[in-house]
Design brief:
By secondary structure, the protein is an alpha/beta fold. It has one domain: Aldolase class I (TIM Barrel), CATH 3.20.20.70. The protein is built from 16 helices and 12 strands.
């Protein structure tokens, strides 16, 4: 077993062990992937201020996110097809998150259903909702999340249209993989993954199959899904969904201050500064570069989180210092899951927390809640000096 010291180490193992179509599904963006790349590279433009002769004893990365105690300002983001990265992947990730002390968010497009995850975990999780044209299905989905005791609803607002991701089309992405010469050759080299999948019955979209009349195979599922994302979603419809839920709500996919203000006016508990991991509007600005403007616009009316581009505990600290109440991670925990299952998710979280803790200390702080922008060198023009 190799010595694992970074998220990159997990990614390297992940790439070797998971079928190419699912690796590419995770590790890609839309169109030219400019925004996908900028999400990562823009973090590297920010530098830290080193402090010395500061008491570093009794440090803590613990904080809260929408009133929930967390071991560090991190939640596991909703990721579709997680159960294709590792057999029963959503259950494994939820268990790892609960044991570590951070929230897990289940995607609408998960392989393990809401009921599966609830039955196999002891800690309430969050549920992510896509607004669908089938209002009856959406209502039933919300009720199922309530019945499962989900403690928050994450409404994704930036996927009214599905961004084109070239790799998914070229790979013929499907769950489970459709047998063809290309996929069979690839699967022959991924024996760990194959043995895992042979040992589970969860191989399709658990929140959809069996809950929609007429969906019996991948063809009918693909046809239904492609027509379901609600292109008419607006603030009024979001408000209706919030009322139907009646509990804590987080809006995911905010990238402009004006939209952040609209969200805060609805009374949401948190917004997530996000461009869907660079998988929707290619050419949009990175999440981290938009964070300060949105934090300023919100001015404490609700919590502001960020996702997209986080690959280290240092990135988490940079986001926190720029005003984020919390962060969401997707790819880092997926790398761990695909590499080593539940243990891999735990390993990813441990790596991130260690990096966060050590960097915070070397910047002169012992409490994550007291970190401010003063620990950073932010380059001039980082947020963009754009013509109006």
């Amino acid at each position: 077993m190799p010595v694992i010291t970074s998220i990159q180490d997990l990614k390297d193992i992940y790439k070797r062990r998971v079928p190419k179509m699912f690796y590419d599904y995770c590790e890609s963006g839309s169109w030219t992937e400019q925004t996908f790349q900028d999400n990562i590279s823009d973090f590297s433009k920010i530098r830290f201020r080193q402090r010395v002769a500061v008491d570093m004893v009794n440090r803590t990365t613990a904080t809260t996110m929408i009133g929930q105690n967390v071991a560090m300002p991190v939640a596991l983001a909703p990721v579709g097809l997680t159960g294709m990265q590792s057999a029963d992947g959503e259950i494994k990730a939820a268990r790892a998150a609960a044991a570590f002390g951070v929230p897990f968010t289940l995607s609408t497009m998960s392989i393990c259903s809401i009921e599966d995850v609830a039955a196999n975990t002891d800690t309430p999780f969050w549920f992510q909702l896509y607004a669908m044209n089938d209002e009856d299905y959406t209502d039933r989905l919300i009720q199922r999340a309530k019945d499962a005791k989900c403690s928050a609803l994450v409404i994704t607002v930036d996927l009214q249209l599905l961004g084109q991701r070239h790799k998914d089309l070229k790979n013929g992405l499907s769950a489970p993989p459709k047998p063809n010469p290309k996929s069979i050759i690839d699967l022959a080299t991924k024996w760990r993954w194959c043995f895992g999948m042979l040992g589970t019955k969860r191989r399709s979209f658990g929140n959809i199959v069996g809950h929609i009349e007429g969906i019996t195979d991948n063809t009918s599922l693909a046809a239904w899904t492609s027509e379901q994302f609600d292109q008419s979603l607006d603030w009024k419809k979001i408000e209706v969904l919030m009322k139907k839920w009646g509990g804590k709500v987080i809006l995911k996919g905010i990238l402009e201050p004006i939209d952040a203000k609209m969200a805060a006016n609805l009374g949401v508990d948190a917004i997530i500064v996000s461009n869907h991991g660079g998988r929707q509007l290619d050419g949009a600005l990175s999440s981290i570069s938009m964070l300060p403007k949105i934090v300023e616009e919100i001015d404490g009316k609700c919590e502001v989180w960020i996702d997209g581009g986080i690959r280290s505990g240092q990135d988490i600290l940079k986001a926190k210092a720029l005003g984020a109440t919390g962060t969401m991670i997707g790819r880092p925990y997926i790398y761990g899951l695909g590499a080593m299952g539940q243990l891999g998710v735990t390993t990813a979280l441990k790596i991130l927390q260690k990096e966060l803790d050590m960097t915070m200390a070397l910047c002169g702080h012992r409490d994550i809640n007291k970190v401010t922008r003063e620990i950073l060198y932010v380059p001039k023009g980082f947020e963009g000096d754009w013509a109006k």
